Amino acid sequence: MSRFLAYRLHAPTAGASAPAARFVELDVDHLSPGEVLVRVAWSSLNYKDALAAAGINAIVRQYPRIGGIDLTGTVAASSDARFREGDPVVVHGFGIGVDHDGGHAQYARVKADWAMPLPAGLSLREAATLGAAGYTAGLCLHWMEHNGLAPARGKVVVSGATGGVGSIAIDMLAGRGYAVTALTGKAAELDYLRTLGAAEILPAEVAKATGKPLDPAQWAGAVDAVGGEVLAWMLRTLQPDGVATAFGNAAGAQFDATVLPFILRGVKLIGINANSPMALRSEVWAKIADAYRPRHLDLVANEIAFQDIPEAMARMLARQSRGRYLVRMEG
Ligand SMILES: NC(=O)c1ccc[n+]([C@@H]2O[C@H](COP(=O)([O-])OP(=O)(O)OC[C@H]3O[C@@H](n4cnc5c(N)ncnc54)[C@H](OP(=O)(O)O)[C@@H]3O)[C@@H](O)[C@H]2O)c1
Known about the structure:
The protein has helices at 47-54, 124-146, 164-175, 190-196, 228-237, 260-265, 278-288, 297-300, 309-317; strands spanning 4-10, 20-26, 36-45, 65-66, 70-78, 88-92, 107-110, 116-117, 155-158, 180-184, 198-203, 219-224, 238-246, 268-271, 301-305, 324-328. The two termini are 17 Å apart. The mean pLDDT is 97. α2 (124-146) packs across α7 (278-288). It has two domains: 4-118 and 297-328, Medium-chain alcohol dehydrogenases, catalytic domain (Quinone Oxidoreductase, Chain A, domain 1, Alpha-Beta Complex), CATH 3.90.180.10; 132-271, NAD(P)-binding Rossmann-like Domain (Rossmann fold, 3-Layer(aba) Sandwich). Strands 3, 5, 6, 7, 8, 15 and 16 form a seven-stranded mixed β-sheet that branches. A six-stranded parallel β-sheet has the order 11-10-9-12-13-14, sandwiched between helices. It is an alpha/beta fold. The site of NADP nicotinamide-adenine-dinucleotide phosphate has 30 residues, from α1, α2 and α3. Residues 46-48, 132-133, 136, 160-166, 184-186, 204, 225-226, 247-251, 272-274, 316, 319, 321 line the site of NADP nicotinamide-adenine-dinucleotide phosphate (NAP).
């Protein structure tokens, strides 16, 4: 097989904190081992990819490493009987892009246990637009509904609303009949959020400490991308039996809370880790392709060429991005 292109992170040079990232030509033998060789059609940029490439939070510890925590493509070769050449697959998590070479290359080699057949009803492009972010949004909805959330219960608030997970969560929730409130720091994106289905949009500043253990109850559900004061505010303002899902920490890893929302209102807080076992992935992806299917993936997707990865990552870190960066690996 001919050589192919990869965007690879190399150990930081002396005095630098960020890895040295560059496009390189590789052979398949350079890739982390695995039974399934995938010709990558699409990858994406998740916040974690941008943090890893910038050397923030020591996400990557062994170099060189190809980033990219999600990818979609077709099987080019497999030594595992579950996959045959040409099969369309989706891979995210399981350490790809972190401690195993990931999706920011034209080929990836992964363990067969990590490769999920493309869910029926989705194209490779749609599945990559969703990617780890769409799966996270779907997982939030799955666990909230499992814990009693239904449209008739009331409004659902989504923080980090213009981000990858937030955008898809709004789209999924609104499509399923929920009244969605978007919490955003981007006053310029109100039209975007309304088109996705947000019925109400609040500036992120409303989510400030009040010094009280409980504030007026507003939400039946809450999807939190940012942590810190925002998560604390959500817990104080959930309705009785309301349910919050938490998966991010850009606004802070710590949050100030009391037990009162839990013991007086029966509020539930569910931690979301998208690196879930395959059985749960398959179950939730099947819902994402059908009952949870977002209606505005074309609006959420910002398609970029492979060589545009560095610039797009910088925009993500500067909080200047919106929706999902979809990386076209072919051509
Ligand atoms: N636990 C898991 O398994 C899991 C899975 C997926 C993602 N995550 C995490 O979830 C978070 C969101 O991921 P993503 O892919 O949606 O990222 P993203 O596309 O970069 O979006 C994050 C959004 O959060 C808001 N935001 C950014 N910086 C902020 C800050 N300092 N304070 C408050 N809000 C801020 C912005 O929205 P507005 O400008 O609209 O406010 C931004 O668009 C990331 O921290 C990511 O690492 C975790």
